[in-house]
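Chain A, query sequence.
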Amino acid sequence: MIDDKVRLIKPGKTYVGAQGVAYGSGASRKTAGSEKICMNILPLPSGVHPVPRVHKDIETSAYLLEGECSVFHGENLENETVVKKGGQIFIPGNVPHTPFNRSDKKCICIVVHSSGDDQDELIAMPKLENVLSKIKKK
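Chain A, predicted structure.
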C-alpha cells in the first residue's frame, strides 16, 4: 500500500495553547502533517475567555456547534460580535481577537486557521485582558 498521506484524527487528545485554554486536537501539522490548514475544537465553559491574541498573516474561521459566544475584536477589542449556534465568524490575519463565553452554558466551536498549526505566528496580547475584566457575563 502506498502512503497517500490521508490521516484520521481520533477524538480525545487535547492540548493547552498559548491562548491559555484546552483545545481538542484536530487536523494540524502535528497530527496529520498539514501545512496550510489546521482545525481544532474549542470548548469554552461559561465565563471563560482565552488570552487575547493576533495571528500574524493567518486567517481564522470558527463555526459554533453549541451555545452562544461573543468574539471581541479590534485593536483594543472594542468590537463585539455575538455568534450563536450554527453561526460562523471569519477573522482576517493581524486582527486582535478573543472569544468570550458570556452565557451560562458551555459553548463549543470548531476553529480553523490558514496555517498548519494554530500556534504559528500567534502573538499573545495579555495587556488587553484588562478590557475583558470590565465586561460581565450576560
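Residues 18-133 form a domain with the Jelly Rolls fold (CATH 2.60.120.10). The first helix runs from residue 29 to 32.
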